[in-house]
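Hi support team,

I submitted a single chain yesterday and got back a structure, but I'm not sure I'm reading the token output correctly. Could someone confirm the output below corresponds to the sequence I sent? I've pasted both exactly as they appear in my results page.

Thanks,
R.
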Amino acid sequence: VQLVESGGGLVQPGGSLRLSCAASGFTFSRFAMRWFRQAPGKELEWVSSISGGGGGTDYTNSVKGRFTISRDNAKNMLYLQLNSLKSEDTGMYYCSKGSDRGQGTQVTVS
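Hi R., thanks for writing in. Yes, this is the structure output for that exact sequence:
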């Protein structure tokens, strides 16, 4: 399993980013995927999940209405659209399949 996140960066409050996760080494469409984040000095936090087919999604309350998870099974890609960003969204964002996760991409809102 290989998961490679990208798309993070520095953005002002209210701004947007689109995170991507390139997946390989498994049959991507068969697995639900998740995004997690970890703020400095805090525990890992689940952010969002999407079913294998993409029809089912879920979000932690703090990002509902602002973040959108999606996937392209033809390209083995997972996405997280981040809108209306707040300083509290700052952290390292990871995509995950089960217990596997990538190296993360840093999002800084300031």
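A quick pointer for reading it: The two ends are 33 Å apart (CA to CA). Let us know if anything else looks off.

Best,
Support desk
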